[in-house]
Amino acid sequence: MDTFRHAETDTRSERPPAMPWDTYRAALLPQWQSLLSSSPSEREMQEFLELHPCLLPGATDNIGPGGHHGPSFSAVIRQPSLKGLGPTRVPDFMWVRRDTGAIRPICIEIESPRKAWFNKGSRTPTAELTQAIDQLTEWKVWFSSPENQLIFAKTYAPSYSHRPVEPQFVLVYGRDAEFREAHSPHGSPDYMRRKRDHMPRDREHYFTYDQLNPEQEAEDYATLTYKIDQWSLHSLPPTFSTGHHLMEMSKIIRDPSEAVFRTGFMSVERKSYVIERWKYWREVALSEHAHFIAVGRE
Hints:
Blueprint: E1 4-6, H1 21-37, H2 42-51, E2 75-78, E3 93-98, E4 103-110, H3 127-143, H4 146-156, E5 168-172, H5 189-197, E6 204-207, E7 222-227, E8 230-235, H6 246-252, H7 257-262, H8 268-285, E9 291-293
Parallel strand pairs: 1-9, 2-7, 4-5, 5-6
Antiparallel strand pairs: 2-3, 3-4, 7-8
Helix pairs in contact: 6-8
């Protein structure tokens, strides 16, 4: 007979609240635009997106068939290891979205916003773009192995590991200015934009950095790292709430303190509260009870 436990959500009005989404978005967008305007390196983009995963494609179910149960652990995974690929061939980010039919990993390659899509005057892809697209091909080959799919499912979506793995592949590259009349180095920027839009192959999705926007669905999504059978919490957004969605992540992350205290736009009181509630939801998740009923965001 199934046993149910009612997990106690915190409805106290005096609890320190998470930053509202609209406030966070209003603070984030100027920082994002300032970073893009500074001609940043790929490393700078990686570090910023690790702190703000709501900007990444796939934060919602808008890539491929979707994954309506959300991503594994309510998080994006930074530079996830794929067994057999070298350290320079792994995705920069990966969502592992899930639904009743499949596990749907979304592997993301980011390149510098400074890089050009096409050679000036020849209409041919740059060598840097060709190399970036080859990264996606490497991942396609890796996922084509049934053995790799099984290892992947057990590692990144253990509760769904009996389901097929159906990956999607994302490239974030360059700026829209290359395809705008006033700034383009090309004689026919509109033609080059249309050529860019026709380039993605099966299960591929290409974006410029200007096409990335904060997605509210990701306001509770963290950034995780997985290395050598060990999970660690890299960062949380200031909008992060502490409800029952925390149970899956708290099973693999015992103590979030280091990442919580790095979180920007979050008060000291809120940081302490998140750590306290994290411990509570971990206890619930590891309880002997098989089923839980919980309502509320905290």
